[in-house]
Amino acid sequence: MHAIKEPYLKDILTLFLLTIFCFSCSDIDTTLIKTSANNSKTKKVVLLNSDGNATVDISYQISVYDFEYKLTGHELGNVFAVDRNHGATGLDTSSINFKWLSNDTVLIDFDKKLRTFIQENKINGVTILYQPR
Questions:
Q1: d(CA 71, CA 32)
Q2: What pLDDT, in 10s, does the model give residues 46-87?
Q3: pTM: predicted TM-score of the whole model, two decimal places
Q4: What DSSP string runs through the chain?
């Protein structure tokens, strides 16, 4: 019987760990918290909750979609994404609010203690304004 040489053992271990990582990164489930359409019913903004996992905290994510878009339950935020900032604040329905100022501008009001990962200013033809509180 031949022993596996050490350099190859490291390659095999790396490949094994990478395979496990890829399978653990399957679709993330998200839950719709609230949604709002613009007055002309051409766009909508949605607030989603992602429960995270053993290594990732729960997060709130906002996306802007065409009004007719049907959520699948696996969306990620395309406009704004935050978490609890290692417990510095909580996440509940009052942590983030939004309102349409016009058919192509939305204002996002949020707790400034949240840790921000994504903060886009324009997406899908909609201008995004932010108001930390």
A1: 9
A2: 999 988 665 677 899 999 999 999 999 988 899 999 999 999
A3: 0.76
A4: -PPPPHHHHHHHHHHHHHHHHHHHT-PPPEEEEEEEE-TTSSEEEEEEEE---SSS--EEEEEEEETTPPP-S----SSEEEE-TTTTS--STTTEEEEEEETTEEEEEE-TTSEEEEE-SEETTEEEEEEE-
CA gap 34, 37 in Å, rounded = 11
Name the residue among 53, 2, 58 with its Cα closest to residue 33: 58
User: How confident is the model over 17-46, as pLDDT tens digits?
Assistant: 444 444 444 457 889 999 999 999 999 999
User: CA 112 to CA 95: how far, in whole Å?
Assistant: 9
- What pLDDT is stored for residue 25 in this prediction? 46
Q: How many CB atoms lie within 10 A of CB 50?
A: 21
- Contact call for residues 86 and 108 (beta carbons, < 8 A): no
The residue assigned the tokens 């100022």 is: 101
- Comparing CA positions, the residue from 72, 68, 75, 78 lying closest to residue 41 is 68
β partners of residue 83: 59, 115
